[in-house]
Amino acid sequence: MRAGNVVTRPLVTVGPRDFARHAEGLMDDYGLAVLPVVDQGVFLGIVTKPGCAGGADAVPPLHVEQVMTPPKLTAGAEMDAETLFTAMSFYEVSCVPILRDGQVLGMATTRDVLEAISHDDPHLRAEHAGHHG
Questions:
Q1: Which residues pair with 47 in a beta bridge?
Q2: pLDDT per residue of the chain (133 residues) written in tens, 0 to 9
Q3: For the chain, which end, N or C, has fewer CB atoms within 10 Å of the first or last residue's CB respectively?
Q4: How far apart are the C-alpha atoms of 106 and 1, rounded to whole Å?
């Protein structure tokens, strides 16, 4: 399975000029810890819950562009799930932006990737089907 097929839906993004408070609210609403920052369809970086927390109550309020960071890792949509999992483990990240031609397709979490791998591997699929607890 390819990385582009394991992204979390719906894709929730923020713009660089959005307020950090707004990004934090979206993360709360959708149960997310990371959001991609996009400007006119182009991926710029990520904003994290801890990053927003420091800027949410700032006076004057901070914009996302002031608290966003480059991700430790990005992946192309065609990367296979096993390679993606290996890279996520190496870089110690639990969520990765999946890109195609500079545009973010979505975010893939460790759980998304592991589920994709288990569905592709008949041995893991059999183990998972037999596990009820």
A1: 35
A2: 888 888 877 899 999 999 999 999 999 999 999 999 999 989 999 999 988 886 656 778 899 999 999 999 999 999 999 999 999 999 999 999 999 998 999 999 999 899 988 876 555 444 444 544 4
A3: C
A4: 15
Q: What is the rounded CA–CA span in Å between residue 101 and residue 97?
A: 13
Burial 72-99 (b: 16+ CB within 10 A, else e): eebbebebebeebbebbeeeeeebbbbb
Place of tokens 């608290």: 67
Residue type, 25: G
Residue (of 61, 103, 110, 99) closest to 77 by Cα position: 99
